[in-house]
Design brief:
- The longest helix has 24 residues.
- This protein has about 260 residues and is an all-alpha fold.
- The protein has 2 domains: about 130 residues, no CATH class; about 100 residues, Arc Repressor Mutant, subunit A.
- About 5% of the residues have low confidence.
- It is globular and about 65 Å long.
- The chain is built from 12 helices and no strands.
- About 30% of the residues are buried.
């Protein structure tokens, strides 16, 4: 048996130990691993058993699909308060296994951390979209009542002169944060989850989540300021940082979308 074949068998053994009803071939597992993590040397930290489960789901294994169905039923029942749990489950199921015009969402899971935590985030996001479809969000009562900012002279300055410099600095600073910090910032500021919802997703207390978010935002702003200071005057840096603080979600969205 080659080293590559032995490595795949080790993964299959890990999957069989946790999910004995899942049947996945070495070729199917290899296909899934190439989607999740193309570089073999970077696979050491992946959740092996869950990767095998995902491989089974993506390749139509009945045992894997049955396990996924059970997870969705349980998670949707608790996340979809005020919604039809069956409708939420169906929508999430289609999103995971069919996709929304692109590829199945399940194939985008990065393989790190517990699969159930990632599923919880997908379900909460889908539930939020369902709520928005049924009741348009009043601009005066958004999820966390985050204040909107009016256009300022600094905005024009940022757009016309310093947009590229700020965006590059912010993007570099964001990439320097821990994976958990980026995940929390994305859930809270981009996906629109409240601190309570993020706490449920992370299995943590709301106070802890608030502390982590505050720390992540401070680290991101400090790193951005440091990079800007290497290229711009202190007055221009101050102007850009004031603007970015008022429009933090917009800055984060732009940096995230650009990669």
């Amino acid at each position: 048996m080659s080293d590559a074949a032995k490595a795949l068998q080790d993964w299959l053994d890990a999957g069989a130990a946790q999910y004995p009803s899942v049947s996945v071939s070495a070729a199917q597992l290899d296909d899934t691993l190439r989607r999740i993590c193309p570089e073999p040397a970077a696979r050491e930290g992946l959740a092996r058993a869950d990767v095998v489960l995902v491989a089974g789901c993506l390749h139509g294994d009945p045992g894997a699909l049955g396990i996924l169905e059970g997870l969705l039923n349980r998670l949707c029942a608790s996340a979809g308060k005020g919604l039809d749990a069956a409708e939420l489950t169906q929508r999430v199921r289609l999103l995971l296994l069919v996709g929304d015009g692109a590829r199945p969402r399940l194939s985008t899971w990065a393989g790190r951390g517990a699969l159930v935590k990632w599923l919880s985030a997908v379900i909460h996001r889908t539930a939020l979209n369902l709520v928005r479809e049924r009741k348009p969000i009043d601009s005066a009562s958004t999820l966390d009542r985050r204040p909107a900012s009016a256009p300022t002279p600094e905005a024009a300055l940022m757009q016309e002169q310093d947009a590229a410099v700020f965006k590059a600095a912010f993007k570099e600073a964001l990439a320097g944060l821990s994976e958990r910090s980026r995940h929390l910032l994305r859930l809270y500021y981009l996906e629109g989850f409240t601190a309570e919802q993020v706490a449920r997703i992370e299995g943590a207390h709301r106070v802890s989540v608030a502390r982590w978010l505050g720390q992540a935002k401070r680290e991101l702003r400090a790193a951005t300021r440091l990079r800007l200071a290497q290229q711009l005057s202190s007055s221009r840096v101050d102007s850009l940082m004031r603007l970015s603080n008022a429009r933090f979600s917009v800055s984060l969205e732009g940096a995230s979308r650009s990669g």
